[in-house]
Amino acid sequence: MAAAAQERYEACPENKAIGAYLGLAVGDALGATVEFMPPAKIKALYGVHESITGGGWLGLKPGQVTDDTLMSLVLGESILKKGAVDASAVAQSFSDWFVNNPVDIGKTVKRGIIHYRYSGTPYVAENSSDAGNGACMRTLPVALATYGLSDEINVKIASRDQAHVTHNNPLSDAATECVIQMIHAGLTGCDKYDIKHGPVKQLLNRFPEFNYFEIHREMPSGYIVETMQVVLQAFFTTDSFEDCLINVVNRGGDADTTGAIAGMIAGCYYGLEAIPARWLSQLDHAVADACELQARALLALEYGKAVSA
Ligand code: MN
Ligand code: MN
Q1: Is residue 182 situated within a structural domain?
Q2: pTM of the full predicted structure?
Q3: How far is ligand 2, taken at its centre, from the CA of residue 218, in Å?
Q4: Hey, which of 84, 110, 166, 283 has its CA 20 to 30 A from 67?
Q5: Separation between Cα atoms, residue 227 and residue 265, nearest integer Å
Q6: Which residues make up the environment of ion ligand 1, defined by Cβ < 5 Å?
Q7: How many domains in the chain?
Q8: H/E stretch holding 112
Q9: Which domain covers residue 92, as residue numbers?
Q10: Are 263 and 27 in contact (CB under 8 A)?
């Protein structure tokens, strides 16, 4: 490809948006195989885990994704239908999804859905002790739908409207908004220096517990701080989508979710063409098609302009 054409291709937000969505699904499918394992066990079983083979504690089919991708698709569908994040519509969509016996669901997500069913209220109360990663893992559709919104406050409102259906916690909010800003920066074509000294620095200034430079973290739990630490370590210490994802999932722990979040950030940053073909071809085809369609539609959405009653 000629240099000028290459540059245009790389700056194309659509290519980056699709890369982010397929990156999320690939990271989820790759990581799910080793979810909850310690790195030593992964090493004993696989050497380096780098193939989408299914299995894991959920007994997945090769290429099957989990709640991280499926809740993103449900959320994205709701945003497209309403033209914006509408908390009641999101809560109802999550509730409908839960009815169909999902292969996996987090305990905080389940509690939020049950709360909605009993109260009709699409927000849970603030919970200072429960900073799980479940709102952050599904945030990509919000990032794509709000790309280009000039007012940061409206982006935050959109993020919290979906997050608080199940997770209402300042650390979860801050990390989720940081991931949205990292995706926006990636779509714009920012380099890693800008991302590190922009959204990531802002997060660390507000909540120093996210500091990720001091210890090499393995076996991250579902606690958003540990999740973000391994995602940031993997993203900033590698130079390709493939290396970033291999780095993060081989740390084990909540590997489908760290894979999903690293996958959306790295997929956006490096673009669709950086995702290894062997991973894309192993991914569940219906899911891959849905991710691509949604990425295009969410990016094209005029956010906040109602599209249906
Ligand atoms: Mn999962
Ligand atoms: Mn998980």
Answers
A1: yes
A2: 0.96
A3: 15
A4: 84
A5: 13
A6: 66-68, 104, 256
A7: 1
A8: helix 107-119
A9: 3-303
A10: yes
